[in-house]
Amino acid sequence: MTTVPTPAPAEDTPAGAYPGRRRQRRPRKQGSQSVEGVTLNVFSHAFLVLWVVMAAGPLIWVAMTAFRSSGEILNDPMGLPIAAHWENFTTAWTEAKIGRYALNSLVILAGSLTGTMLLGSMAAYVIARFTFPGNRFVFLLFAGGMMFPVILALVPLFTIMDNLSLLDTRPGLMVAYIAYSLPFTTFFLTSFFRTLPSGVQEAAMVDGASHTRTFFQIMMPMAKPGLVSIGIFNFLGQWNQYLLPLLLNNENENNYVLPQGLASLAVSQGYRGDWGALFAGLTIAMLPVLVVYAVFQRQVQAGLTAGALK
Amino acid sequence: MKTEEQARTPAPITKSFVPWRELGLGSKLLFIAAVFMPPRFTPARVRYDRRYRTLDKYRFILGFLALPLLFYAIFVISPFFQAIWYSFTDWSGGATANFIGFGNYEKMWNDERFWDSTTTSLLLLFVAPLITLVLGIFFAFMITSGGRHRKGQAISGVAGSSVYKVVYFFPQVLSIAIIAVVWQRVFSTRSGLLNGGLEAVGLGDFEQAWLGGEYSLALIATLTVLCWSFVGFYVVLFSAAMGAIPKDIYEAALLDGAGRGKTFFKVTLPLIWDTVRTGWIYMGIQALDSFAIVLVMVPKHALKVTPVFLYERFREGQFGYATSIGVVLLVLSVVFSLLIMRIGNRDRIEY
């Protein structure tokens, strides 16, 4: 199951065998190298496991501590849960409003992700498949936006939203998510649409399909792998967004999205000393994303690393 | 050419093609009206005209581009230009904004708090990519070539490499704000994982009030979280790049008697250099923008980075000043990117 492409195994390796476990003599090579291979193998596993502990350790600790009472946490932060304190989760979900924040996040995401994918693929399709004056300009306009840091837009974006009376509203936040996701989405999908064969599009046109119909019924299904990658990228980016909600959705605590809610919870629970609920809240926030990731790991990794390879 | 096209077109319009100029006023109006008409209500005379196809194409292009471009122009492009304008004004949210030239930049130059936060940001900018990339390349190399030698293969990945990558990638799918809260708990003096862990292994002397307000400790904490969240990303990125290197290059190196170390420095690293450079720039920009980590995790009096300093000025209502800091940040990240491009520019190796 390695993702590293390896050439076909030699004739004496049965297909699907677990290669690391086989002790093999290699007659043609010197023994010293094989020893080196084994030591290196042990050595590399040791380092790799070390980082597994580093990467997953804090998260596992949070999930475990979520089942402990605040008193236990303060006494011994490293201890295992004695009795499962499920009430931490109910407190987090209701009193600390994690449920509400999660719902807000979902509602915002439903609108913003649909909008991003629709608008992004529309723009990308037109840029990739049609020649018209200004095509290059529009493409560069979107591509240039990828360099633009949101933090620079802080003040103007705030005033624009205020003037359009979109400040502290859901549509406002959705629109902002869409606008700031468009550059990369369009850029990525443009290169994707370019790789699709043009014959199919022409065939559809000859058969009398309109441009719109060709797009929605022929080209969109063909672009599915690209749409999935960029969809995952945007899903995580928008679900995890912190700066935009902090700027545009800061007035009413009931409208907070999940990351925003947890950040404020960290402050308020600190005053109350109710650490158990905070840990439970963190667990509730992290678990679904991690589960979804574990299921779609290959697509997620491909989608997210595509961002850096622009 | 012309006869062919006429032969293909349906019967009603076998008339010869009339240039746009010579078309009657009525037909011209009909064409203009056709822009807004659904095809099925468009008269056949217009619909099967060659010009209608061009018209239809542009109508489609405009229709599809209008909304994305509108959103993009209002919320991304226009804030950019407004920001540059605001940075030269003393605007503080009221009705008037006076042009004050480089006043904000002068103020920034003399503002000690700006320099404090920017020094921290620059430190992160130089140190964070270094640590993250070295760790990322190291683990990626371990994953792609740390395995035992198999017969007939010069290089092989470790067993379970995809499991490693899945776990390493965990932090990347979490919100940076949530990561900041998690690590705030980890670093907690009384009930944190770090101090608790140190005590458990008998290193109680090393316990610290990590986020208690001391600058150097807060800096270490910020760096740790920054690197922790991105190492996995680079492991995945670099191991994909390393996996794309053809195996026969490694075989050739092995035949020539190159060891693992030599293979890494002479073969692997040069061949993934483009990816490393891109990753370096990307990580630098992330380090400059370590807004959420510092805002959520680090107490205000311990340490600040430039984006946090900017945000505080914004909340104080110093809109002009805040945007000028944003402009400086943009310039910094552009200069950094160009610098890395220039430094890291090597001959591209095609394989």
Automatic annotation (TrEMBL), chain A:
The chain crosses the membrane at residues 38-64, 106-127, 139-161, 173-193, 214-236, 275-296. This is Carbohydrate ABC transporter permease. Belongs to the binding-protein-dependent transport system permease family. Its main location: membrane. It is found in: Cell membrane. It comes from the Bacteria. Residues 1-33 are annotated as: Disordered. It is a multi-pass membrane protein. PANTHER family: ABC TRANSPORTER PERMEASE PROTEIN MG189-RELATED-RELATED, SN-GLYCEROL-3-PHOSPHATE TRANSPORT SYSTEM PERMEASE PROTEIN UGPE. Keywords: Cell membrane, Membrane, Transmembrane, Transmembrane helix, Transport. InterPro entries: MetI-like (IPR000515), MetI-like_sf (IPR035906). Residues 20-29 have a biased composition (Basic residues). It comes from Streptomyces iconiensis. The keyword Iron-sulfur does not apply.
